[in-house]
């Protein structure tokens, strides 16, 4: 049996005044998260509407939704830090909720669908079981007809797989929503261009600090594939570990692997470290000949939550992290140079400190700053969610492993072999959740193989021919060779 105490969802309430029973019931609907039990959410999870086997998972999704409402941020336009009462959720909030999930989990449509449907079912439960003098959620019939509009407007849909279920316009269409596709090179270039433009802005408060933080963040996400919430956990101890390795390299010796493992008590073996470094060095994440430095990351998701993992990063990335910490967290150069008083950023021993509140940044705070600079002020045709850097990191590692095998996978066994090799770098508890990366990498490899088949001359030979004959003449020769191959085939 499920432990019902584990299903209580913590919330704090506010009083709207009034002494009669109706006022009390209405008052208790308008509650926020933390400290007290949200009995509306808890009643829903404990109700017969939620199967016994699904209660803990549903409780997690409900809690996730309430956390969003507690620190509501409007990602399209001016943001607000106001908490949204559960009884005042609207269509606009659900659209923002989808972007919130994207920020946290990336382009994972299944996660979005499940979380939004749970939120809709919770609102419907409140509408059906408690006295309201307004329509919190209106649901159209299967023909899409509404008899009355509510704050939230959903619709019934029917499928052979799911039966009758609630849907909402905020849920993205599957055909327009690729899952786990990595951020593209063009998207990264557009981020860096926008960051350069941001550096030139004098109207934005704390421009220098925010620019340095975001530049370091992009480098960190690209080279490590960490989640934003994991980046937020990086502390001064991790920075000092990077510094110790950098000083060792400067003195002409790299930190011994055994010494590194013992000092961090990470639970990994020398063999794990050596295998991870070999995989990383064979990818395009690091320039050939560049030294590796190890960064300690605390996993924040899944069954491996709170466990530590060591990830190799290029030496320049490590030096950038150290420099940012020394210059802006310890030295507070941006404030000192402008004659502003120090705010003691160093006291929290964290890498990421908020520019305005001067408190340690949570993952949501980092994402909010990211969106303020790259979404609100700079519209782009590219998908640039911070979590897409993680998809890129994993896809690159899988792709390089496939290339070494010189084949596309073809079998589940080989796919799992590849994923097992990189699992220690990604923090995934199960390789089953990583299978989609194999499909993406296979597609990339097949595309490369087709391109190589179409290649008439090698790159070096082609450059020599172009220098002697000219581009147009070489293109004509290439066309003749391809046509000849087609005729023979």
TrEMBL record:
Belongs to the 'phage' integrase family. It comes from Photobacterium kishitanii. CDD domains: DNA_BRE_C (cd00397). Residues 178-450 form the Tyr recombinase domain. One of its GO terms (biological process) is DNA recombination. It comes from the Bacteria. This is Site-specific integrase. Keywords: DNA integration, DNA recombination, DNA-binding. GO terms for molecular function: DNA binding.
């Amino acid at each position: 049996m499920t432990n019902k105490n584990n299903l209580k969802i913590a919330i704090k309430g506010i009083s709207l005044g009034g002494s009669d029973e109706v006022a009390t019931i209405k008052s208790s609907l308008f509650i926020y998260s933390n400290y007290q039990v949200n009995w509306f959410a808890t009643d829903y999870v404990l109700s017969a509407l939620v199967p016994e086997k699904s209660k803990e998972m549903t409780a997690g999704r409900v809690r996730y939704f309430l956390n969003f409402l507690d620190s509501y941020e409007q990602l399209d336009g001016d943001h607000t830090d106001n908490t949204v009462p559960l009884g005042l959720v609207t269509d606009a909030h659900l659209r923002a909720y989808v972007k919130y999930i994207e920020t946290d989990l990336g382009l994972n449509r299944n996660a979005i669908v499940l979380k939004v449907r749970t939120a809709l079912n919770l609102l419907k439960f409140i509408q059906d079981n408690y006295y309201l003098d307004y329509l919190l959620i209106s649901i159209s019939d299967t023909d899409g007809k509404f008899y009355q509009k509510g704050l939230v407007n959903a619709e019934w849909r029917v499928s052979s797989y799911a039966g009758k279920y609630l849907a909402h316009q905020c849920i993205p269409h599957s055909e327009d929503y690729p899952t786990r596709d990595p951020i593209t090179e063009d998207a990264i270039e557009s981020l860096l261009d926008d960051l350069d433009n941001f550096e030139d802005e004098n109207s934005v408060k704390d421009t220098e600090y925010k620019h340095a933080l975001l530049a370091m963040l992009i480098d960190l996400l690209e080279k490590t594939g960490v989640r934003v919430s994991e980046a937020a956990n990086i502390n001064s101890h991790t920075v000092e570990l990077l510094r110790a390795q950098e000083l060792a390299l400067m003195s002409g010796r790299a930190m011994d692997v055994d010494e590194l493992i013992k000092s961090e008590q990470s639970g990994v073996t020398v063999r794990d470290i050596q295998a991870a470094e070999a995989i990383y060095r064979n990818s395009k994440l690091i320039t050939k000949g560049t030294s590796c430095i190890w960064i300690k990351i605390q996993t924040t998701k899944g069954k491996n939550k709170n466990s530590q993992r060591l990830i190799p990063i290029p030496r320049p990335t490590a030096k950038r992290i150290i420099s940012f910490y020394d210059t802006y967290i310890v030295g507070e150069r941006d404030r000192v140079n402008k004659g502003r008083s120090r705010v003691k950023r160093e006291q929290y021993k964290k890498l990421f400190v908020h520019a305005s509140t001067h408190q340690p940044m949570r993952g949501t705070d980092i994402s909010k700053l990211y969106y303020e600079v790259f979404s609100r002020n700079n519209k782009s045709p590219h998908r640039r969610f911070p979590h897409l850097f993680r998809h890129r990191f994993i896809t690159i590692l899988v792709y390089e492993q496939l290339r070494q095998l010189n084949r596309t996978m073809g079998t589940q066994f080989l796919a799992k072999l590849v994923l097992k090799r990189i699992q220690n770098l990604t923090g995934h508890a199960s390789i089953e959740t990583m299978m989609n990366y194999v499909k993406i990498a296979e597609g990339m490899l097949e595309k490369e193989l087709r391109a190589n088949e179409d290649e008439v001359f090698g790159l070096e030979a082609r450059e020599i021919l172009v220098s002697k004959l000219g581009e147009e003449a070489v293109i004509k020769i290439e066309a003749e060779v391809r046509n000849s191959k087609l005729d023979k085939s």
